[in-house]
From TrEMBL, chain A:
Pfam family membership, one: zf-ChsH2
Name of the protein this chain belongs to: Benzoylsuccinyl-CoA thiolase
Domain ChsH2 rubredoxin-like zinc ribbon residues, every copy: 17-49
Source organism: Nocardioides marmorisolisilvae
Residues in ChsH2 C-terminal OB-fold domain copies: 52-120
PANTHER family: BLR3430 PROTEIN
From TrEMBL, chain B:
Transmembrane segments: none
Domain (Thiolase C-terminal) ranges: 280-398
Organism: Nocardioides marmorisolisilvae
SUPFAM superfamilies on file: Thiolase-like
Domain of life, per lineage: Bacteria
Molecular function per GO: acyltransferase activity, transferring groups other than amino-acyl groups
Name of the protein described by the UniProt record: Lipid-transfer protein
Coiled-coil regions listed in the entry: none
Length: 151, 400
C-alpha cells in the first residue's frame, strides 16, 4: 500500500518529489505553503498565482531534534516513541522551509550550510492508512540503519 | 509636547504553580500596584487586561473580568492579545488614551494560569491553523524553534553548550532574592549540562517553564504623577519613553513560531533589519536614545541562547559577540550592561499575558533603587524585549 500525503496539495510524490508553492503572476514572489487571494508582498497588488514546484535542494539554515514526544495533534511514527531530527532549509527561491530529517539521520549528520534534498517518507498511520510527509535528506551522508531519526 | 507617561505604581503576584484561578492572581497584582501608586481604585478611569487564551471566556475579556473582580467602578475597558507581547500591547493601549488626553489614570493587568508541559495548540482538527499544523505535520514544538536559533549561534559564532549553561547560572544567581521569582536556587553549569536534552542543543534547564503569575502597572499622565508626587513627597518619576509593538517588514526571513516557512526574499530583497532587530530599533527611535544609553535590560530568555540573541538584536553588542559579553561578566549585575537582573524567565517561567508587564515592573524597581538584593546601581535607563507568535513582539524603554 502506498502512503497518501498527510496534507493535500503541499507536495508531489514519486521519484523526484517537490514542495508545491504559489508564484504571484504580477511580482513573481514565491510562497510556501500555497497562498490565495492577495499577494503578501506589500508592494504588489497581484491577486493571481500559479502553482510552482520548489527547488528540491537547499542549504541547512539550522537544525535540531525532538528528544521528547511532541504533544497532540502530533502523531508519533512508532510506539515506543523514537526521536526524530528537524531542519530549517534555505532554498534558492529565497525562503526557509522546515521539515523533519529523513529517517536514519540525526543532528550529528549536518551542519549549517550543508546541502540537503527533499524526499517524501511515511510519517504516521491514521484511520485512513499510512500518511506521508516531506523530509530533508543530507546529500553527502549515508543514513544509519535504525528504525528512527536522531541518534 | 512630551510623549512620556509616568509609571505611578507596579505590583505582582509571585510566579509559581499555585493552581488557582488567574483572576485571583490579577487582583493581587492590581491591588499591589494601586497601593504602590497611592491611587485608590475608584480614581482609575481605564483598565486594560491582557487576554489569557487558556482560561475560558473570562480570559478572553480579561479587562472586564479584572474590573468586575476589583468591583465595578465605571472605568473604560480594553483587552489586548499579542501572544507573549500581550502586556506591552496592553500598556500601549493605556498610554495612547492617556497621551490623547482621554484618560488620566490607567490600570494594566496581566495574569495567567498555565498547564503543565509543552504549550500545545487548542484542541480540535484545524487544518487551516499554522499553530495546529506545525505539530501535526512536523512535530515542531516551541523548544524546537528555540533550538534552531541556539544551534545557529553554535555553528556561526562558536557558542557552546557551556555558554548557554552560564546564562542560566547567571540568571539563577540574579533571581535568588527576588520575592516574585518562582525558582530561587543557585544552579551550577554542570547541572544544566547534565539535564536531559529536550531539543538539541538545548537541555531541560536551558528552557523556561510555564508558570502562574500576574503583574500590574498603573500608568498616568506626567502631570497627574507630578501632583501625586507632591502629595506623597516621592523622588524622580519613572517614565515610559517608548513602547515598540512593530510588526515584521516583508519579507520576514527568520523562521518564526508557529510557521513552517519564511517569506521569500528573492523578489523583495533581504530587509535591512530582521524583525527582532526592528523591534528594538523602533523603541530606540521613539525614545530618542541609543543602545549605549541603556543601563539595564530585561529580555525574553525563553531559552538561555535566546538571551544572547536578544542582546545582539537590541544592539547592546555587535552580532556574534554576545558570548564574549557573557564570558567577561558584562551581563551580570555589576557588569557593563546587566541583563535580566530579575532572574528572567529562567527564574520565573513564562506566564504569557503577565510577562511583558513583569519586565516593566522589574525595571521600575531597578530605576527607583528598590530592587533589593539584585540592584543595578545607578540605573537610569532600562529596556525590555519580548517576542510573541504570529509577528508579535515588543520593546519598552523606561527612564527616570
Amino acid at each position: 500500500m502506498t502512503a497518501t500525503p498527510a496534507i493535500d496539495g503541499w507536495f508531489t510524490t514519486g521519484d523526484a518529489p517537490a514542495l508545491l508553492g504559489s508564484k504571484c503572476t504580477t511580482c513573481g514572489t514565491v510562497f510556501f505553503p500555497k497562498t490565495t487571494g492577495f499577494c503578501k508582498n506589500p508592494a504588489c497588488s497581484g491577486e493571481e498565482f500559479t502553482e510552482t514546484e520548489l527547488s528540491r535542494r537547499g542549504r541547512v539554515w539550522s537544525y535540531t531534534d525532538a528528544q521528547y514526544q511532541p504533544p497532540a495533534p502530533y502523531i508519533p511514527a512508532s510506539d515506543p516513541y523514537v526521536p526524530f531530527a528537524l531542519a530549517a532549509v534555505e532554498i534558492p527561491e529565497g525562503l526557509v522551509v522546515l521539515g523533519q530529517l529523513a529517517a536514519g539521520f540525526g543532528v550529528a549528520d549536518i551542519k549549517v550550510g550543508d546541502e540537503v534534498e527533499l524526499v517524501v517518507e511515511t510519517s504516521y498511520v491514521d484511520e485512513t492508512g499510512e500518511r506521508s510527509i516531506w523530509k530533508w535528506r543530507p546529500v553527502s551522508v549515508e543514513p544509519v540503519e535504525t528504525t528512527g531519526g536522531a541518534q | 509636547m512630551s510623549r512620556d507617561v509616568a509609571i505611578a505604581g507596579v505590583g505582582m503576584h509571585p510566579w509559581g504553580k499555585w493552581g488557582k484561578n488567574f483572576v485571583e492572581y490579577g487582583v493581587v497584582a492590581a491591588r499591589a500596584a494601586l497601593a504602590d501608586a497611592g491611587i485608590p481604585w475608584p480614581d482609575v478611569d481605564l483598565i486594560v487586561g491582557g487576554e489569557t487564551v487558556r482560561n475560558g471566556y473570562g480570559g478572553y475579556v480579561a479587562g472586564a473580568t479584572f474590573a468586575q473582580a476589583l468591583g465595578w467602578n465605571g472605568a473604560r475597558v480594553a483587552t489586548s492579545y499579542a501572544a507573549c507581547a500581550t502586556g506591552a500591547q496592553a500598556l500601549d493601549t493605556a498610554r495612547a488614551r492617556i497621551l490623547a488626553g482621554m484618560s488620566e489614570v490607567a490600570l494594566v493587568v496581566g495574569a495567567d494560569t498555565t498547564p503543565k508541559g509543552f504549550l500545545a495548540p487548542n484542541a480540535g482538527e484545524r487544518w487551516d491553523d499554522p499553530d495546529w499544523l506545525r505539530f501535526r505535520l512536523l512535530g515542531m514544538t516551541n523548544p524546537a524553534y528555540f533550538a534552531l536559533y541556539a544551534r545557529r549561534r553554535m555553528d556561526l559564532y562558536g557558542a557552546t553548550s557551556e555558554d548557554f549553561a552560564q546564562v542560566k547560572v547567571k540568571n539563577a544567581k540574579h533571581g535568588l532574592s527576588n520575592p516574585n521569582a518562582r525558582y530561587r536556587k543557585e544552579v551550577a553549569a554542570h547541572e544544566v549540562l547534565e539535564s536531559a536534552i529536550v531539543a538539541d542543543p538545548l537541555h531541560l534547564l536551558d528552557i523556561c517553564a510555564t508558570s502562574d503569575g500576574a503583574a500590574a502597572v498603573v500608568l498616568c499622565s506626567v502631570e497627574y504623577a507630578q501632583k501625586l508626587a507632591q502629595k506623597h513627597g516621592s523622588g524622580d518619576l519613572v517614565r515610559i519613553k517608548a513602547i515598540s509593538t512593530v510588526t515584521p517588514t516583508f519579507p520576514n526571513t527568520i523562521i518564526d513560531m508557529p510557521l513552517m516557512s519564511t517569506d521569500s526574499s528573492a523578489v523583495a530583497g533581504v530587509p535591512e533589519r530582521t524583525f527582532k532587530e526592528s523591534i528594538g530599533d523602533a523603541a530606540y527611535e521613539e525614545a530618542g536614545i541609543s543602545p549605549e544609553d541603556v543601563d539595564v535590560a530585561e529580555v525574553y530568555d525563553l531559552s538561555t541562547a535566546l538571551e544572547l540573541d536578544w542582546i545582539e538584536d537590541l544592539s547592546l553588542c555587535k552580532r556574534g559577540e554576545a558570548e564574549q559579553l557573557l564570558r567577561s561578566g558584562d551581563t551580570t549585575i555589576g557588569g557593563r550592561i546587566p541583563v535580566n537582573p530579575s532572574g528572567g524567565l529562567a527564574c520565573f517561567g513564562e506566564a504569557v499575558p503577565a510577562q511583558a508587564l513583569a519586565q516593566v515592573c522589574e525595571l521600575t524597581w531597578q530605576l527607583r533603587g528598590q530592587a533589593e538584593g539584585r540592584q543595578v546601581e545607578g540605573a537610569r535607563v532600562g529596556i525590555t524585549a519580548n517576542q510573541g507568535l504570529f509577528g508579535h513582539g515588543s520593546s519598552v524603554i523606561v527612564a527616570r
